[in-house]
Amino acid sequence: MILDILTDDYFMKAALAEARKAFDNDEIPVGAVIVCKKQIIARAHNMTEKLNDVTAHAEMISFTSASNYLNSKYLTDCTLYVTLEPCIMCAGASFWTQIDRIVFGATDEKRGYSSTSLNITHPKTLVIGGVMEKECSELLKEFFRRKRE
Predict the structure, then answer these.
(1) Pairing mode, strands 126-128 and 101-106
(2) DSSP symbol at 117
(3) Taken in order 133, 15, 41, 51, is the CA torsion positive or negative?
(4) ∠141-56-74 over CA atoms, to 5°?
(5) Eight-state DSSP code of residue 114
(6) Distance between CA 120 and CA 135 in Å, rounded?
(7) Helix and strand tally (H, E) in the chain?
(8) Model confidence pLDDT, tens digit, residues 23-53
(9) Which one of 59, 109, 138, 149 is the catalytic residue?
(10) Residues 6+ positions from 104 with CB-CB distance below 8 Å
(11) Is the dihedral of CA 120, 72, 124, 8 positive or negative?
């Protein structure tokens, strides 16, 4: 029997590694990877402070990187793994990419797209939340705890 080690947890760990890079760079620690055919084709983390750009979210950077890799504006055979539930901007961008799946870790009760009444993900996009939620949440909580000190 062959075990498939390339699970949602496996790829979320890669997104968490990106989130730790953001943490180390004093950015809100959100990381993302995009996977196509069980291969990571894009990696990103928040860079809003470094780039002085409010749109430089991990998801947005990873969409651009994956589109460049595939030479296509559509990500129909791809999965976005992101450590925090996408905001309205990122969920809206995911609509236009027509991405197959979005898998996120921690829920964002204040700014996550699901906190609105808008249904802004593509109708064909499967959204799965809560993957490695504890680990994703703890990194965010540690970041903001240090900011308050």
Answers:
(1) parallel
(2) S
(3) positive
(4) 115
(5) G
(6) 27
(7) 5, 5
(8) 999 999 999 999 999 999 999 999 999 999 9
(9) 59
(10) 81, 82, 83, 84, 85, 86, 127, 128, 129, 130, 131, 136
(11) negative
Which residues are CB-contacts of 41 (< 8 A; sequence separation ≥ 6)? 34, 35, 65, 66, 69, 70, 78
Active site residue 59: yes
* Residue 1 confidence (pLDDT) above 70: no
- Tens of pLDDT, residue by residue over 70-129, are 999 999 999 999 999 999 999 999 999 999 999 999 988 887 677 676 677 778 989 999
Would you state the structure tokens that stand for residue 101, as one six-digit string? 């799946």
Residue 31 · residue 17 · CB < 8 Å: yes
Helix (H, G, I), strand (E, B) or coil at 44: strand
